[in-house]
Amino acid sequence: MDIRLPGPIAAYFEADGNRNADAVAECFSEDAVVKDEQNVHAGRTAIRRWKAEASTKYSYTVEPFTIEVEGNRKVVTGHVVGNFPGSPVDLRYFFRLTDEKIAELEILP
């Protein structure tokens, strides 16, 4: 199923798919926060490091298949397949956007 994602979210998934940690980090505001696997990554530099480490540790693909609005966040559910424990899995990506940038991302099963 093809879904229409807001610009910053579409850019995030495209950069992630290309394993481009710099481009992923550019999707976020300077003071953005990412919560993933019970860790918090605050600021664009930490977010770049998080994505670079994840990309070298595992090989994976993400196919977003739904988007919903929950309060002030957009929730994208994606099918993730790769060489990580528990693959494949559907993950929910909770995005909060500010000024065409991602201000917050929380990734949950």
UniProtKB/TrEMBL annotation:
Gene3D superfamilies: 3.10.450.50. It comes from the Bacteria. The keyword Glycosyltransferase does not apply. Keywords: Plasmid. Signal peptide: none annotated. Residues 10-104 form the SnoaL-like domain. InterPro entries: NTF2-like_dom_sf, SnoaL-like. This is Polyketide cyclase. It comes from Roseibium algicola.
